[in-house]
TrEMBL record:
Species, as recorded: Desulfobacca acetoxidans (strain ATCC 700848 / DSM 11109 / ASRB2)
Protein name, per record: Phosphoesterase RecJ domain protein
Record domain DDH: where: 19-156
InterPro entries from the UniProt entry: DDH_dom, DHH_sf, Oligoribo/pAp-PDE_c-di-AMP_PDE
Top-level taxonomic group: Bacteria
First and last residue of the signal peptide: none
SUPFAM superfamilies reported in the protein's UniProt record: DHH phosphoesterases (SSF64182)
């Protein structure tokens, strides 16, 4: 590890201008911020640029409250930089990324065969990329500022879903280390800002357009400003005690998107999604969460998405139809009654 830190510092000259590219989510934002801090005093220019605009309210709150300086991609000129870094992603993850050749890549996604850089640190066994960067900071004996620590702490929290998703000992250690430097009120504030006013409108519309069948709630919200609102609504509905499943559909760009959520108790959302929609588009997921995306071209018989009830009935038919299939077990041999 110590060798790696030395190698990282040797990579750059003081006059270099470094562009750090990210596909902004909490983990990539915090990783970029940590890399920037790590290279303070080693490099005069270090700019972080998200390759597309940030839209998630929580990510916007994170950037605003922690005053994270970001340069929008369309406002930077690649010619102003002679060094490039990528964190929490690999070039193959986005066509924009693959336009650059990188001096440094630090990531925790599985290594892609085409990923290469003079400095390459890929650790798929880590739950969060911010854990790797926290290790570098500790190695360099850098005490993180309140804002940097809060960003890293929040990133580990979200990428591991509060350690419910895969993580390892290192994530735990980094989390524990950052705890004392973190402003927890800021984390709470960031976490709580899930909705924008625009989303609230869809929330209202979505709740009005729901239909309950036993413990299953079906909603169709029409055209959605982004798929996040569907996820938020589906997760919100599960907070209702009588509800064990939620299915929320909406049209985003040229696709019907259906979000599946359940309480996680002996249920198979991924399999149900595949059975209900797999023939029409991509569908699948985990036991308690799944998603289907169907090109509208596959659904020529459906009217405009503004006809909420027709679309909701389509979801109900596809899902309930396959639901009953699931319940059908091979018939038990008839008892011999003579
Ligand atoms: Mn990540």
């Amino acid at each position: 590890m110590r060798d790696r830190l030395g190698k990282l510092y040797q990579l750059f000259d003081h006059e270099d201008s470094l562009l750090i590219l990210i596909d902004a989510d909490p983990d990539s934002i915090a990783s970029a911020l940590a890399l920037k801090r790590l290279l303070r005093g080693h490099l005069t220019t270090r700019i972080i640029s998200p390759i597309r605009p940030i839209t998630r309210p929580q990510n916007l709150t994170m950037v605003r409250l922690l005053e994270i300086p970001l340069a929008p991609f369309d406002q930077i000129r690649a010619a102003d930089f002679n060094r490039f870094a990528l964190v929490d992603s690999q070039p193959s993850h986005n066509p924009r990324f693959s336009e650059f050749s990188y001096d440094l890549i630090i990531d925790h996604h599985p290594l892609n065969a085409h990923t290469q850089a003079p400095f390459l640190d890929i650790r798929p066994e880590y739950g969060s990329n911010s854990t790797i960067l926290t290790e570098y900071l500790r190695l360099a004996k850098i005490k993180p500022s309140l804002k940097l620590a809060t960003a890293l702490y929040y990133a580990i929290k979200t990428d591991t879903r509060n350690f419910e998703r895969s993580s390892n000992e290192a994530d735990m250690r980094a989390f524990h280390f950052l705890f004392r430097y973190t402003r927890h009120a800021l984390v709470r504030r960031i976490e709580s800002t899930e909705l924008s006013l625009e989303m609230l409108e869809y929330f209202k519309q979505g709740l009005n357009a729901c239909k309950r069948l036993n413990d299953r709630m079906y909603c169709f919200v029409g055209r959605a400003p982004n798929p996040d609102i569907l996820v938020i609504l589906a997760e919100f509905l599960l907070r209702v005690v009588e509800i064990g499943w939620s299915f929320v559909g909406g049209v985003y760009q040229d696709n019907l998107i259906v979000i599946f959520r359940n309480d996680g108790i002996r249920k198979q959302a991924g399999k149900l999604a595949t059975r209900a929609f797999g023939k029409l588009g991509s569908a699948g997921g985990h036991a308690s969460s799944a998603r289907a995306e169907i090109p509208l071209a596959q659904l020529p018989s459906l009217p405009k998405p503004e006809r909420l009830e027709v679309w909701r009935q389509f979801l109900i038919d596809r899902i309930e139809g396959n639901w009953r299939l699931k319940k059908t077990r091979p018939a038990a041999p008839a008892p011999q009654t003579e």
